[in-house]
Design a protein that fits this description.
Elements: H1 5-9, E1 12-14, H2 23-32, E2 37-44, H3 45-49, E3 66-71, H4 75-87, E4 92-97, H5 102-106, H6 117-130, E5 135-140, H7 149-162, E6 167-171, H8 182-185, H9 193-202, E7 207-211, H10 217-225, E8 230-233, H11 235-239, H12 241-245, H13 248-253, H14 262-278, H15 283-287, H16 300-310, H17 318-325
Parallel strand pairs: 1-2, 1-8, 2-3, 3-4, 4-5, 5-6, 6-7, 7-8
């Protein structure tokens, strides 16, 4: 399997997470890791094509390598949305076949599409046709509801591969579309890592990343050692970003780490924060993504308290972030 630059970056990726992995979060994460592949929040094709909300695709050049995740189930609409994403310069366009939320189901996309691999293949084919060579990928579950993942997942991969997709991120849990909340769907269905590992062993030409329940670089490295091409980390990368990302470049990519001290990462964010606030943005829009950077360190609770209580107030700016750092031991 020949690797391109985005394949290489996908050795470690931060999962797309609604309300979390926005452009401010991605800038913060990129400071800690130059190499890790970052994903946007899911952007729906209808919002882009029918709603004209192209501003949802805005990002900073510093974020590369960065992938955009699209939600939708209409092939033509997804093709149009893909063209918009490509025009914005994203390194990858990913189709969401994993989100179990009610609002996603009501739009007939997300995890419910696991029930219709033929439609997913049509969507992927249309997206590839519109992508002008930018890679189109799929993020999926191992199945939904009463489906048997041992039967469903291989068929799904084969059908969608037939449409031209060669890279998948697989959340190693089923999704229950009725009876479990999105939060519960991230924890309650049991993980089946061996099934995902088997899919890679049986399909060596595919680039497969594993997702779900991975909390550390040690765990990610074990999946890579077991044969996976990549590991995708979600909540741990958000809640303990320094633990996951600050040594990612050296451990996962053999490259120098940008920073050794999370304090230096925070200081490096100050110019970005200053520019954001000066342009009329709110400090809390940025700092809400930074609350966990000192997780486990003395003074971390005080850091979080200062920013949580005061970053939303009028006039709050970089000086508050510096004051919050003074609370650290």
């Amino acid at each position: 399997m020949q690797l391109n630059a985005v394949d290489t970056a996908a050795r470690l990726s931060v999962a797309p997470m609604m309300d979390w992995t926005d452009r401010h979060c991605r800038i913060f994460h990129r400071l800690m890791s130059r190499e890790t592949l970052l994903y946007t929040e899911m952007v729906t094709a209808p919002a882009l094509v029918r709603g004209g909300a192209v501003h949802l695709l805005d990002y900073s050049p510093e974020e590369h390598p960065v992938a955009v995740q699209l939600g939708g189930s209409d092939p033509e609409e997804l093709a149009q949305a893909t063209k918009l994403c490509v025009a914005h310069g994203y390194d990858e366009v990913n189709l969401n076949v994993g989100c179990p939320s009610d609002r996603v189901q009501s739009g007939t996309f997300g995890a419910v599409l696991m029930k219709d691999p033929g439609l997913v293949a049509e969507c992927a084919s249309a997206m590839i046709g519109a992508a002008d060579g930018v890679e189109v990928t799929v993020k999926c579950r191992i199945g939904v509801d009463d489906q048997d993942p041992v039967v469903v997942l291989p068929n799904f991969l084969d059908r969608v591969t037939g449409a031209g997709v060669r890279r998948f991120a697989i959340h190693a849990r089923k999704a229950w579309l009725q009876g479990l909340s999105p939060k519960e769907n991230r924890d309650i269905p049991p993980l089946d890592y061996p099934l995902v590992h088997r899919m890679k062993a049986e399909r060596p030409d595919l680039h497969l990343s594993i997702n779900g329940g991975i909390h550390s670089l040690d765990e990610a490295a074990r999946h890579l050692a077991a044969g996976m091409d990549g590991a995708m980390i979600g909540r741990a990368a958000y809640h303990q970003p320094a633990d996951v990302l600050m040594t990612a470049d050296s451990r996962m990519f053999g490259r120098p780490d940008p920073f050794n001290d999370p304090r230096d990462v925070v200081r490096a964010m100050l110019p970005y924060i200053e520019a954001h606030v000066s342009a009329g943005g709110k400090l809390a829009q940025v700092t809400k993504h930074m609350l966990g950077v000192f997780a486990g360190q003395p003074g971390a609770r005080h850091w979080k308290r200062v920013l949580s209580e005061r970053a939303h107030k009028p006039g709050a700016g970089p000086e508050l972030v510096e004051a919050a750092m003074m609370e650290l031991a």
